[in-house]
Amino acid sequence: MDGVRTLFEDGRTFSHWTDRPVAPETLRDLADLMKWGPTSANCSPARIVFVASPDAKARLKPHLDLGNVDKTMAAPVTAVIGYDLAFYERLDRLFPHEPGARSWFAGKPDVIAATAFRNGSLQGGYFILAARAVGLDCGPMSGFDAAGVERDFFPGGDIRANFLCNLGYGDRSRLHPRSPRFTFDEFCSIV
Questions:
Q1: What are the phi and psi torsion angles at 55 (to 5°)?
Q2: CB contact at 8 A, 7 and 132
Q3: From CA 148, how far away is CA 159, in angstroms rounded?
Q4: Residue 188: what are its φ and ψ, rounded to 5°?
Q5: What percent of the chain has pLDDT over 70?
Q6: Would you say residue 4 has pLDDT above 90?
Q7: CB 134 within 8 A of CB 33
């Protein structure tokens, strides 16, 4: 049960960070874990940029909503979680047992967009769990200019920015009490 506690019960959204840096090897470990989560047809559309250097942070800053600036600038790393609209071009490698898989998407922009967003978001959830599994704390957020982030961190036009996730070692002394959650009957039904 320690793993469940680490991933869910003790996992919190952090806005305040310690000065402890995040090693590049830890980011690699995180990515190597999250890639194993399932996606439809193994399409794996998530694309991640780890914003860690002062120069990259300075490029990110003008694209943040005001309420996200201080916590993002204080975080050791901010991951830009994106999704690739050209994911289907790699299905020959990722889904080799179905040679015609590319045709499920090619020329179908609505199917491409829905599949990329859905599966990229799913991978974003795996990302948060993987980060917690390697000992990092997370601060996922919206509240940024997606077009600006895409221009600066995903040039080329095929990758869309989905959300940002600050990473590091959270300052637990500054956590507020945990917010309430729904009971089972408030958000689930068994039919």
A1: -65, -45
A2: yes
A3: 12
A4: -130, 155
A5: 99
A6: no
A7: yes
**What number of other Cβ atoms are within 10 A of residue 51's Cβ?**
23
b/e per residue 75-107 (b: at least 16 CB within 10 A): bbbbbbbbbbbebbeebeeebeeeeebeebbee
- pTM flag (> 0.85): yes
User: Over the chain, what HEC string results?
Assistant: CHHHHHHHHCCCECCCECCCCCCHHHHHHHHHHHCCCCCHHHCCCEEEEEECCHHHHHHHHHHECHHHHHHHHHCCEEEEEEEECCHHHHHHHHCCCCCCHHHHCCCCHHHHHHHHHHHHHHHHHHHHHHHHHCCCEEEEECCECHHHHHHHHCCCCCEEEEEEEEEECECHHHCCCCCCCCCHHHHCCCC
> To which residue do tokens 């015609």 refer?
100
Predicted local confidence at residue 5, as pLDDT: 81
Q: What is the pLDDT of residue 1?
A: 61
Specify whether the CB–CB gap between 155 and 29 falls below 8 A: no
Beta-carbon count within 10 A of 7 CB: 15
